[in-house]
């Protein structure tokens, strides 16, 4: 099993309120197996780890970028950090590209903001539920 993890920034309320949405995507099935929202820090990385199903926590190889929060949380013997040129996170990067194209509030220069973080999370969950394989 191989998981690709990455994070995307978006806004809640106004541009000064940046939120990060983190996902872990199964590289073989392209299914999102865990998602959390929060800061771009070790605490949120730990929340993503806790949100993973047990079979992934105990047996998966993790591909991420070089964000230090991943190194602090993921088991180092099963973690491979690499840049975009290594193509280890290409599926999750493609997922974020699709999100940015299809979800108006995630467009980089949008005027669409959700006022409530619960609605923000709900919008991502709905998108994931309707677009990823089951």
Task: Write up what this structure looks like.
With 134 residues, the protein is α/β, with parallel strands linked by helices. The protein has one domain (2-128): Nucleotidyltransferase, domain 5 (2-Layer Sandwich). 37% of the residues lie in helices and 28% in strands. It has helices spanning 42-51, 54-59, 68-73, 90-102, 117-131, and strands at 2-12, 14-26, 32-38, 61-64, 79-81. It has a 5-stranded mixed beta sheet, sandwiched between helices. It is globular and about 40 Å long. The mean pLDDT is 82.
**How are the strands of the largest sheet arranged?**
3-2-1-4-5
In CATH, the architecture is 2-Layer Sandwich
> What does the radius of gyration come to?
14 Å
Largest sheet, if any?
5 strands, mixed
Q: How large is the count of helical segments?
A: 5
Beta fraction: 25-35%
Total domain count: 1
What structural class should be given to the helix and strand makeup?
alpha/beta
Helix content: 25-40%
Number of strands: 5
Overall body shape: globular
């Amino acid at each position: 099993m191989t998981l690709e993890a990455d994070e995307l920034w978006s806004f809640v309320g106004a541009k000064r309120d940046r939120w990060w949405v983190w996902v872990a995507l199964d590289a073989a099935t392209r299914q999102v197996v865990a998602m959390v929202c929060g800061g771009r820090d070790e605490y949120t990385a730990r929340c993503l780890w806790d949100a993973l199903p047990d079979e992934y926590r105990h047996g998966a190889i993790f591909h991420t970028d070089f964000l230090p929060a991943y190194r602090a949380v993921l088991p180092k013997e099963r973690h491979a950090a690499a840049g975009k040129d290594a193509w280890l996170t290409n599926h999750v990067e493609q997922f974020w590209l699709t999100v940015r194209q299809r979800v108006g509030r995630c467009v980089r220069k949008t005027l669409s903001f959700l006022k409530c973080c619960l609605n923000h999370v709900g919008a991502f969950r709905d998108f994931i539920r309707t677009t990823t394989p089951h």
